[in-house]
């Protein structure tokens, strides 16, 4: 394994595991009040659990990312019908006895007339048309695996954009949900590929109109209090809160000197201090922070305790991330 491949895999593992541990740390605080004085020690004691979640257990955020990760680890094209059909079926199997499924996603699953990606998209569009909106944050909480796809491809960034929009549309039809997922997936992809991100490149990848909109939104978040984006169940405020937490932790996307273990811990801390959808904001931020800082930045106590659907833990997530980087090829 070359040095460059080692760097890719440590950052890819960081994206997946970073999202999962942040999700699990934030889970007990979901829909609660802000807690501005909460501090994290970087030990298993931070994973306190709740009446719903065991200590270290991830939520639907990571549970819905895992089927995408498994498809990527098997070498499937995430923009293709085979991968998306399989993801939808895995999601529905999980949802039958899941502890929690998002409102938007539940409505889509209930409305499906079939069990494949086409049926999911049709239902997502119907839900959107019936409500006039469908821009929940669920489309972005599962972007970590999409960012790992196509790393060796010359047109990899464009393919990530297409895959991210397609997977988002399986449950969240609105343009903001699809564009937000595309942008965050590209940010993760560039972080894994290069170890740094030039934000202008990521914004350009999602197109002129979407790039201008999201560029302004991220500029508004830079330097803001993550808790000021109070409608964080909405994809726009969720992404802004996650980006604000990354900035507040001292991470500069294009400066690897700021991509430290201390900064990763601070990102998660900033996320779980906010009110409302703490676990999802943390999962979104944790994926990008983990990709930038690498898997070694994630506290050992969190890695040891994190677990969830299908009986998976940190070791299995890391193995799947490494397989995704290889595009399904044997090690």
How would you explain this protein's 3D organization?
The protein is mainly α and 331 residues long. Helices cover 59% and strands 1% of the residues. The chain has 15 helices and two strands. It has helices spanning 3-26, 60-73, 81-95, 103-111, 117-131, 144-147, 156-168, 175-194, 199-205, 208-221, 235-248, 261-272, 278-293, 300-305, 314-325, and strands at residues 307-308, 312-313. It has a two-stranded antiparallel ribbon. A hairpin with a 3-residue loop joins strand 1 and strand 2. Helix 10 crosses helix 11 (235-248). The longest helix has 24 residues, at 3-26. It is globular, with a radius of gyration of 18 Å. 58% of the residues are buried. The mean pLDDT is 96.
Number of strands: 2
Ranges where pLDDT stays below 50 over 5 or more residues in a row are none
Lateral strand order in the biggest sheet: 1-2
**Helix count?**
15
Quick structural summary:
The chain is mostly helical and 331 residues long. It has helices at 3-26, 60-73, 81-95, 103-111, 117-131, 144-147, 156-168, 175-194, 199-205, 208-221, 235-248, 261-272, 278-293, 300-305, 314-325; strands at residues 307-308, 312-313. A hairpin with a 3-residue loop joins β1 and β2.
